[in-house]
Amino acid sequence: MKLIPLLIMIVFSSFPSAASAGDTLDRFQDKVTRFTLDNGLTFLVAERHRAPVAGFVTFVDTGGVNEPKGHTGIAHFLEHMAFKGTPRIGVGNREAEKALLKKTDRAYAKWLAAKYRTTVYSRQEQKELRKKFESLRNEANTYVNPNAYAKILERHGATQINAVTSKDFTMYFCSLPANRAKLWLSLESARLTRPVFRQFYTEKAVVLEERRKRVDSDPTGRMMEELLAMAGFPGSTSHW
Questions:
Q1: Handedness of CA 172, 176, 178, 184 (dihedral sign)
Q2: Band of pLDDT at residue 13, cut at 50, 70 and 90
Q3: Which helix or strand (DSSP H or E) is residue 200 part of?
Q4: What are the E-state strand segments in the chain?
Q5: Three-class SS of residue 38?
Q6: CA 185/CA 33 separation, integer angstroms
Q7: Nearest Cα to 167, choosing from 95, 70, 237?
Q8: Cα separations in angstroms, 138 against 37, 47, 199, 224
Q9: Contact between residue 143 and residue 104 where contact means Cβ atoms under 8 Å apart
Q10: How many CA atoms lie less than 13 Å away from 215 in the CB half-sphere?
């Protein structure tokens, strides 16, 4: 599954003017500019003279319906991982981290294989493999600068930094001072084209906890999941 942006919408605002005070839908549509880059990325840019802020929304053409059968939740997981940074954002020593992440993945694969081969690996061997994996994971985490992506935006006045995953799309959004548009474009491009899935196993636990809260422990969430599954809706268990 690829994180391919489908649409970026930017609403620029400035101080109010008499002309903008009584905007109708038709007048607002006249202020919308639409263009598509050579790579297929579409922009919608709207100017509103109301306040010196800009709202940024990125729609990604990936959601629960794109998940392979039996692997629901991947789209939501990718939404979380997009906040973990890039080779330059979110890490103190990238080369050291990169080497440790590879070792951690290998250690996890060995532990997982042992976990389900109880006739081959003893409990003690499984315990040792898990301990090695956790040690490498924790060591890799020491190189992480937590929430670095969001902190950069917040230092420049950003608010409402968040994202949501749905059946057929993922959406990232935030608000910034209008004169920080270039910063946002640079950061958004970097994290969607050069993401680093650091803290992968730690964040996996966070996503699973969200599922327990929104589905497993919520009667309405469980009912909706069962109804959609009965209807044969693709990715029916991944709306959380």
A1: negative
A2: low
A3: helix 200-211
A4: 5-13, 32-36, 42-48, 53-60, 159-165, 170-177
A5: coil
A6: 17
A7: 237
A8: 41, 46, 9, 37
A9: no
A10: 17
Q: Let me know: does 129 contact 104? Beta carbons within 8 Å.
A: no
- 0.85 exceeded by pTM: no
Q: How many CB atoms lie within 10 A of CB 140?
A: 25
Beta carbons of 104 and 131 less than 8 angstroms apart: no
- The span from the CA of 17 to the CA of 86, in Å, is 40
d(CA 33, CA 29): 9
**N residues, the chain:** 240
174 bridge partner residues: 56
CA distances from 9 to 32, 103, 196 (A): 10, 39, 25
Alpha-carbon span 229 to 70, nearest angstrom:
12
Query: Span 83-101, mean pLDDT?
Result: 96
Amino acid at 19: A
Please, which residues have CB within 8 angstroms of residue 219's CB and are 6 or more apart in sequence?
Answer: none
Using CA atoms, how far apart are residues 82 and 211, in angstroms rounded to an integer? 19
Residue-level pLDDT at 1 = 41
| Percent of the chain whose predicted confidence (pLDDT) is above 90 | 54
